[in-house]
Specification:
The complex is a heterodimer of chains A (295) and B (284). By secondary structure, chain A is mainly α. Helices cover 75% and strands 2% of the residues of chain A. Chain A is globular. By secondary structure, chain B is mostly helical. In chain B, helix 8 runs antiparallel to helix 11 and helix 9 runs antiparallel to helix 10. Classes of the chains: A mainly alpha (295), B mainly alpha (284). At the A-B interface, helix 1, helix 3, helix 4, helix 5 and helix 6 of A face helix 2, helix 5, helix 6, helix 7 and helix 8 of B.
Chain lengths: 295, 284
Amino acid sequence: MAQRSANKSRLGALPWIAPALVMILVFVVWPAFEMLRTSFQEVGSTGAVKGWAGWQNFATLIKNPDLPNVLIRTFIWVIGVVFFTIIISLPVAQLLNAKYPGRKVVRWAVIIPWAASLVMTSTVWKWILDAYYGVLNEIAMDFHLLKEPIDWLANTKQSFVWLMVVAVFVSIPFTSFVILAGLSTVPHDIMEASKVDGASPWQNYRDIIFPLLRPSLFVAAVINLINVFNSFPIIWVITMGGPGYETDTTTTLAYKISFRDQDVGQSASMAAINFAIILVFIALFVKASKNQEQS
Amino acid sequence: MTTLVVAKRHKRFTGKKVSLTISAWTMGFLFFAPYLQMLLTALKPKEEITAIPATYLPKKWAFDNFIGVWKEIPLMGFIKSSFIISLSATVIVILIAVPAAYYVARNDFRGKKLFLLLVLITQMFAPTALVVGIFREIVKFHLVDTYLALILIYAAFNMAFSIWILSSFFASIPQEIEEAAWIDGCSRFTTLTRIVLPLALPGLVTAFIFTFIAAWNEFVIALTLTSSPEHEPLTVGLTSLIGQYQVQWNYLFAGSIIAIVPVVILFALIEKWLVGGLTAGSVK
């Protein structure tokens, strides 16, 4: 009986999964290969392929004097945003989990940046940070923190910090809900038992709850790493990666090279390098999740 | 009387509880604040928006911005595009992901691991990372500036998440229930539609809303693949106003509020399932 049904299911797998398989192969795998191929082609500004370019596109890209800074900035962007997102999401999740009047409303409020379009959130942040009419200057001056309005986006270092602040702001809701989901799996009697033992709340959190949250934190960290690496709208709306390439990450740089500078071949090489970076992330993720299953 | 009752109730609010409540509410406000600023700007008359010093609240509440915006920008067209694209993509995702997720949850088959790996890899790729390849493919298919291009791309990239969440829901339904239906003479398909899907409704709703919202909010692919205002979804249509000579912030933000409110409501509706869905995800 078991043998027969196993046989039947092997024959029957295709009609159930084929449509999904076709969609993924045609619209995810194909573009990936198309992009890799393009990175070795010479493409004119009209999009017509002029011929094979070998490693020429990569060579041109590597000679780009802005590239080293963009790479370093991308590294700071990804690590910084993910780090602060997780550090802040831990207490946020505690507050979402605790019992107090109006918890539901607080949860809804925290959901808004997750649900709202990233583009529109970025637009309003650009407006909040506006040098002349922005509300941030207004608040800072009313609290006597500032004497004169500041153009928050005037210098590159400062504007990049603000881009990171916005990225952390929009990443916290998802992350804190993943941690909240993790908290809901902590058995109740474990919490109670540690309270009876007279542990302080902080000891309780550090020694008992935090270790149990590690699987959730792992998932949150990996998904955030990928999202933040691919993040586009925040930078695009607020600074467009400018001035020049000074607030670009490799993701926005690839887009600029392709759709603004019209050098599709070179952009594809940048994207291929990005692709390789993500593959490393995925490999690490698969490996780490296997390790976790074993332990 | 009332004061007495209130006082009594307040007694149970220890200092700790009060500070907890205050910090939680403050946190909630901080996450809401940028959108409050969006709303307040959308309610200011044009001349107040560029007044110095800036004011927190409108002096004259310009509710008519929410009427004027429909005339000032082709908002109806943007909404129509966003709606057609998101809904079509979501329906495709559900129709394709349900059978795949169900099969994966219930059967072992040759290539299952490979299939799941493929799904996982898709999950890891944002369309942003592949935008150059997607653009060239869509040019080849002669689908630039069409709804169909966006529908297919959004469906493909959101498939993985739905398969993943639905299969964990299907797996949690005891197989005995299905076996009973088979004995009663139901086919595999009727069992799925009549027995399994109603039980997996929370998963179905979550997958539906997640896909819809992802499609509704997508920006990069829409920016790249659309070129005419009548095909632009909200995200691209509204931001195209920023680049213009004079930004009409009041209309831009009135439009944004109109775009954001429905998805926030959708998201709030699944909030109670969100935690469960994410738990299933992180345990898997």
